[in-house]
Amino acid sequence: MSLVAYEDSDSETETEKTEVSDASGRQTNQLSSSVSCVQHFAPGSTKSTYEMHSAGSTGSSGRSTVCEDPPERYAQNNNTDLAPPSCPRVYSGHAALSVAYKNYEQASSSSTNSGNGVSQKRMHSATAIKGIRPYIPKRLRQENSSMPEKEVSDQRGSSDCDLKLDVSGDQTLRKISELIKPYLGSKYKVTEVPKSLIFHMSKHSGPVNEIQWCPVREQSHMLLSASMDKTVKVWDAVDTGCCLKTYSCHSCAVRAARWSSCGRRILSGGFDSTLHLTDVETGKQLFSSETEFRISALKFHPTESNVFICGGFSPEVKAWDIRTSKVLRVYKAAVQQTLDILFLPEGREFLTSTDAVSRDSADRTIVAWDFQSAAKISNQIFHERYTCPSLTLHPKESVFVAQTNGNYMALFSAQRPYRINKKKRYEGHKVEGFAVGCEFSPDGTLLVTGSSDGKVFFYNYHTSRIIRTLSAHKEACVSAVFHPVLPSLLATCDWAGEIKIWQ
């Protein structure tokens, strides 16, 4: 006895209805595709190109049909302040695109039903026999199982379109900047001193403590910032200068924030004594924990991506494992606060800078630790009576630099016994109690640092001489970082909550 009904049992009227619905679906589909055109602007050009996109791909790919403004061009004149760029706006044709998208959904659903009309008729006739389970082809079972997922994705895409800023943010998080693409397949060129202002971003309502470019080269258009206004922000600091995401998971000031090595997560810690690992796209908390002290320094292990070290207002420094949400090791020192943490090459050893200053010297200002055994290797590294608010490692040579409150930077060897280079001293800027950061350029030829007077100082690494001084901010400039891919692109931040991009 056969359980499958064949096409011979279908009436001619049903076949005619199927053909009519197919024709109407094709007409509606052509109408929606002709209306759904997106205007794209190539970076650095004024010409626009129109591409035909199917409106049904909006929900599946996560891209919106909003037309974007052309990205800001790089400024050519020196000392020119540019107004903050405007975020992408929705044109008047957006309503028409939405209507066309709805019509397309109805037409596609009707055409799908009509196209599978024979299979549906087979199912209907087969289920007419009670107590017998009908046979459903494998292809039809796969289509039916995927239909709910498509509907959910379409609904999610339509709801995201209402949040214009979030839509543009989601788009930009996944994109590869056209300005970065030419440099991905080549080596980093020689760094030059930036001169012109590109973007001026001032959405933080409090001082910015730290900024960092995304470590993934393809996604390095994103800039991370941690502020005293209890928020962490992600910016598109290469193409538009707009704020992509804002994360408000802390109840007090955020002192430190770092990208994970994959560029999809952000680790943050603040004065609320909490640690949060946040997913960049969804904003979900993947890891959260409370500590016994206020956090002031965070660093991921260079080779173990699931391990990080945190320190703060405590004599202890702790190593955490994200997978187990537990403390791996505790490093104890007779200090009151950890100012910064620096991993040495390969991650077997790391340094901590503290505020332990005695009457005549600072014999515990910089402490070297063994990562595995938690043993103290040396605390007799820096003997001058100044604390070191920041440490940075040279990208090519086995040396590191310590920023001191004596208004100079000292050079040390990154190998035991970590001796100081007394022949080189980078001085001329001012620290004056601020946590001013310093960093090498990717090629290692320049050393850049902020200053309490708002200036940015560029030093020649080999001669320790000042190459150029940039009047960047009115308040204290606490951080200046070079872009890892684009030559001569620099990001700076200050105590007034402003972030600026220079080239």
Strand and helix map with partners:
Blueprint: H1 12-35, E1 37-41, E2 48-52, H2 57-61, H3 94-115, H4 117-126, H5 138-160, H6 164-174, H7 181-184, E3 197-201, E4 208-213, E5 222-227, E6 232-236, E7 243-247, E8 254-259, E9 265-270, E10 274-279, E11 285-290, E12 295-300, E13 307-312, E14 316-321, E15 326-332, E16 338-343, E17 349-354, E18 366-370, E19 376-378, E20 390-393, E21 399-404, E22 408-413, E23 420-427, E24 438-440, E25 446-449, E26 455-460, E27 466-471, E28 477-482, E29 490-494, E30 499-502
Antiparallel strand pairs: 1-2, 3-30, 4-5, 5-6, 6-7, 8-9, 9-10, 10-11, 12-13, 13-14, 14-15, 16-17, 17-18, 18-19, 20-21, 21-22, 22-23, 24-25, 25-26, 26-27, 28-29, 29-30
Helix pairs in contact: 1-3
> By helix and strand content, what is the structural category?
alpha+beta
Give the integer mean of the pLDDT values. 75
What is the topology, as strand order, of the major beta sheet? 3-30-29-28
Radius of gyration, rounded? 29 Å
Query: Beta-strand percentage?
Result: 25-35%
Explained architecture:
This protein is an alpha+beta fold and 503 residues long. It is 20% helix and 33% strand. The chain has seven helices and 30 strands. The strands form eight sheets. The chain has a four-stranded antiparallel sheet, with no helix packed on it. Helix 1 runs antiparallel to helix 3. The longest helix has 24 residues. It is globular.
